[in-house]
């Protein structure tokens, strides 16, 4: 059921629009001014917003600007309502990002047609976004035919269609993110969002706000209500990368979210239900972290339903020829140059190196060789540049 927000300081307009849209089966909320409407639009995901232009305190143009600008701009279609046929204002609204512009008195058929078209437009944009994500995810391939990587693929094939939580382990640069994307793209949640959080990149004092959201005024800098990653991933997959770096306080809240399928925003006592599949990854030995008192054992067991250990490149050196061919083709296409090849001795030289940086390091080396060496990359090139 589509959720629609109506913002208008005239009670008659609000009630009329609400009745019309509710009769069509939509879930309708109303706000009596721009400030209230902005808070509601930022706190809840609406499929369509109708807003009047002439309102006290915050008018419709100011509201539209707040909704469509900045880091937290929303994609929700916004239909402007005006009692005056001001062409200049209409053009301004459309430039800012309004979907359409309706004049009072409101025409029933026009309202219904605009609503239908706006919701279809939003749905099409979401489908396009998901398609782009899928295309991008298909570029994240697990290349190789070694026994170690074949085993990883077999586990992914079995676990992806389920709702089981997965803990992905392995050194940096081995492709843990690729594993997470493959699980999501082959799951029943593939059409839902996949939200990624790098726990190591977020300061410990902000991780709870990032994961669970916050309410306006809950801490310095919280200037408005904000949904966290759990809410953003509702109906899809939440990938907690480098979870071994998460603070104990945040771990406690994540455990509660997994146990009860609900979260509470920072500064709020209201529980919000979430339907999220959690995938986690770490380069740390969580058993040692548990012994050191840095990681909760009960959270470990919640996450470690299906463990997937991604092998280091040094443990699958036989995959290097396939990986080099894959990266060479990819990099040459990106650079817009003719495909360069590696001779057998060059491949042997690469297989003889110590790949502490794993797949990521190998790709960097291949790119360096393609840029600096000739059309046929030799053992001497590897010795000079790798």
Structural description of this entry:
The protein is an alpha/beta fold. It folds into 3 domains: 3-127, Rossmann fold, CATH 3.40.50.2300; 139-311, Rossmann fold, CATH 3.40.50; 315-385, Orthogonal Bundle (Helicase, Ruva Protein, domain 3). Helices cover 46% and strands 15% of the residues. It has 16 helices and 14 strands. The protein has helices at 11-23, 34-43, 60-68, 87-96, 108-138, 147-159, 176-185, 207-212, 229-232, 248-260, 286-291, 297-303, 320-335, 344-351, 358-372, 379-385, and strands spanning 3-7, 27-31, 48-52, 78-82, 100-103, 166-169, 194-198, 237-241, 262-264, 271-273, 277-282, 306-309, 341-342, 376-377. It has a 5-stranded parallel β-sheet with strand order 2-1-3-4-5, sandwiched between helices. Helix 4 (87-96) links the parallel strand 4 (78-82) and strand 5 (100-103). Helix 3 (60-68) packs parallel to helix 4 (87-96). The longest helix is centred in the N-terminal third of the chain and has 31 residues, at 108-138. The termini are far apart. Mean pLDDT is 91; it is low at 135-139.
In short:
This protein has 16 helices and 14 strands. It is α/β, with parallel strands linked by helices and 386 residues long. The N and C termini lie far apart (57 Å).
Number of helices: 16
Major sheet, described briefly?
Answer: 5 strands, parallel
Spatially, the strands of the biggest sheet line up as 2-1-3-4-5
Tell me the CATH architecture of the largest domain.
3-Layer(aba) Sandwich
CATH names the topology of the largest domain as Rossmann fold
Q: Return Rg in Å.
A: 26 Å
Average pLDDT taken over every residue: 91
Query: What's the order of the H and E elements?
Result: EHEHEHEHEHHEHEHHEHEEEHHEHEHHEH
């Amino acid at each position: 059921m589509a959720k629609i927000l109506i913002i208008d300081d005239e009670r008659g307009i609000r009630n009329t629009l609400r009745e019309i849209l509710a009769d069509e089966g939509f879930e309708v909320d109303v706000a009596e001014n721009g400030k209230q409407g902005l808070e509601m639009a930022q706190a809840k995901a609406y499929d369509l917003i109708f807003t009047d232009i002439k309102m006290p305190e915050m008018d419709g143009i100011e509201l539209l600007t707040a909704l469509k600008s900045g880091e937290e701009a929303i994609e929700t279609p916004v239909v402007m309502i005006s009692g005056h046929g001001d062409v200049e204002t209409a053009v301004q609204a459309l430039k800012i990002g309004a979907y359409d512009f309706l004049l009072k008195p409101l025409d029933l058929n026009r309202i219904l047609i605009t609503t239908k078209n706006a919701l279809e437009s939003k749905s099409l944009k979401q489908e396009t976004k998901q398609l782009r994500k899928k295309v991008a995810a298909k570029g994240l391939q697990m290349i190789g035919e070694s026994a170690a990587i074949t085993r990883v693929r077999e586990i992914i094939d079995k676990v992806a269609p389920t709702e089981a939580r997965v803990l992905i382990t392995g050194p940096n640069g081995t492709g843990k993110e690729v594993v997470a994307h493959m699980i999501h793209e082959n799951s029943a949640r593939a059409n839902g969002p996949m939200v990624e959080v790098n726990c190591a990149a977020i300061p410990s004092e902000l991780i709870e706000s990032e994961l669970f959201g916050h309410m306006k005024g809950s801490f310095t800098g919280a200037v408005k209500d904000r949904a966290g990653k759990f809410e953003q991933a509702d109906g899809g997959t939440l990938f907690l990368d480098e979870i071994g770096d998460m603070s104990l306080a945040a771990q406690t809240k994540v455990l509660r979210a997994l146990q009860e399928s609900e979260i509470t925003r920072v500064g709020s006592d209201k529980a919000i239900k979430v339907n999220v599949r959690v995938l986690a990854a770490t380069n740390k030995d969580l058993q040692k972290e548990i012994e050191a008192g840095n990681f909760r054992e009960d959270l470990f067991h919640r996450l470690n339903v299906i463990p997937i250990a991604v092998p280091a490149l040094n443990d699958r050196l036989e995959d290097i020829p396939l990986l080099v061919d894959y990266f060479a083709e990819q990099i040459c296409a990106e650079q817009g140059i003719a495909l360069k090849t590696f001779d057998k001795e060059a491949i042997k030289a690469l297989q003889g190196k110590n790949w502490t940086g794993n797949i990521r390091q190998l790709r960097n080396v291949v790119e360096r060789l393609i840029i600096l060496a000739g059309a046929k990359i030799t053992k001497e090139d590897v010795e000079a540049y790798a």
